[in-house]
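[audit] Reproducing an earlier prediction to check determinism. Same input, same settings, fresh worker. If the tokens differ from the archived copy the diff job will pick it up downstream; this log only records the rerun itself.
[audit] input (374 residues):
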Amino acid sequence: MREQGRSPGESPISWSTIIPTARREEAIAGVLLGGATAEALSQVHRTLDRKTALRRLRRSKKFRLPPRAWPNHRTHSQLMTIQSVLRSRAGVDDFADALRRRLNWYRLSQPIRSIASWIYRTVTQSRNHLIASYGNDPMVRASLLSVVLQGHNDSALRWVQRSTLLSSRDDNVCQAAMLVAIAAQMAQMHRTRYAVSNPEIFPMLLRATKDEGINVRLEMLEKLFKDRCSLTKAAASLGYPNGLNGNMVDSALIAIYAWARVPQSYERCITQILRLGGNMSNAATIAGCLCGIQRGVQGIPERWLERITLFPNETSWVERYVERIRDWPHGPEDIQKASALPTMPIRQLIRNALMRLYRIRLVATHLVERLFVR
């Protein structure tokens, strides 16, 4: 079924603006690896309360990654999004259908979670729980689509909307995804003649949404930003004094605030989110995407980047995708000149099984820390 009807909103930034190819390539690589690194960090330090998160930072001085760190579903959702854009031949309906098929495959390749999700939907009779928790974070997909479709006209927001509706029919989530896409445009325009200054970020975002609840939050964050308040105070103002809870809308707003405060430093931006504690994966990954877009891969600390594995996709596989989309000066019209690389479903099954073991090990490590480490 194809989603119809609702307006995706308006953007204060024109998607028709064309920026240099080198800057596009830098932004595309940055959004992929910046999001992957931040997601892996948030997985390793996942669901810590704020006090434990701060104690861990004091003990190790810096947040660390194991030798082979695994990003979770959000990063693979980005790669599926690139494949779907290429398969679409510039048609938004075909894009939505292609992405739906890939997200469904991702869901079916994790049978235990698929059964749990089915039971949840049956018991709660939830209609808003579509392809939840399986490569589904629409905010991360929105940041990638924003970069890939730069140079197209303003119907690019329609692509973001269709991507978001595959995961949630909540209007607030759709509005938040639009804000992330617009923030990604601002980040991509860094070091071009279209650059947006930091004081303009929140006023421009306020012009892009008509939702009263989100506007109230944005106005609050704008005031805190002008007063140079910390991310901790901003999170507390939104109702999270003791750690985040993974709410998609608030995570997007916190991520945008974190990026706006320190856009020049990937490490400081991600570290301040990890210090909040709680379920900060959404916020950390979105902020990682925004900082990666603005700074590029060279802005990500080498000690983190060298430990990331994107299995089942090799680094060369990702590099070839960047090459396919870096030279599209006019958006999806030129998609018809490029083709998608082959997918690897068997390796995806292996990756998901290994990811389960990895997550079990992380949970066991956290449990030991809470029981025995003071």
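[audit] rerun output stored. Observation attached for the diff report: The chain has one domain: 21-372.
[audit] end
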